[in-house]
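Pipeline run #58 for the internal structure catalog. This entry was flagged by the ingest filter as a single-chain record with no existing model, so it goes straight to prediction. Upstream metadata was stripped on purpose; only the residue string is passed forward. Reviewer on rotation: M.T. Logging verbosity set to normal.
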Amino acid sequence: MTTLEWRITDGPVPYLEAVAAMEARVTAIRAGAAPELVWLLEHPPLYTAGTSARAGDLLEPVRFPVYASGRGGQYTYHGPGQRVAYVMLDLARRGPDVRAFVCALESWLIRTLAAFNIKGETRTGRVGIWVDRPATGGRSGQEDKIAALGIRVRRWVTFHGIALNVEPDLGHFSGIVPCGLRDHGVTSMHALGHLVTMPEVDAALMACWPGAFGP
């Protein structure tokens, strides 16, 4: 199947429910029984541990539920006000290149942020999308993370994906060392003064998809 399905779920989706749904969809995509899917959702407040997570980076283990995740990366936070996009694509058909897929995810986020006049950038040696804060009123040399990436690939079908901070409670990140980076902070679109709505962000994500992934 070549059709890409978009799904937007209103209301927080429990993490384990989302993982089970992704697992089932990945199996169906691999079997040719379902189209590729981009699923836009939010989670209730929680922390997830990627395959490279270090125990010492979980600073407040009883603050929110903590889930082991099969995705790459370290600890991250999910919660209301953060747009999570779970991306389930067939790389066997699109091209079996995981690095190219990650670069496309980064380009997708950068293009989406640019639609709101926010300059998102990548950084060598650091996963995710970053904002240079002096340009937005921050201190000299400050760089804050505005979006995280964490993926898994099974038999060339991708799942998990990205998390873009629209208007989450940034204080919730203090219970972990986000992505293992102690010397950098996190920010959001609202914290940067861009008071966008989630539907506006969803529309931008869909509009910017072809530029990053092709039609």
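catalog note: The chain has a mean pLDDT of 92.
catalog note: Helices lie at 15-30, 91-94, 98-114, 198-213.
status: ready for reviewer M.T.
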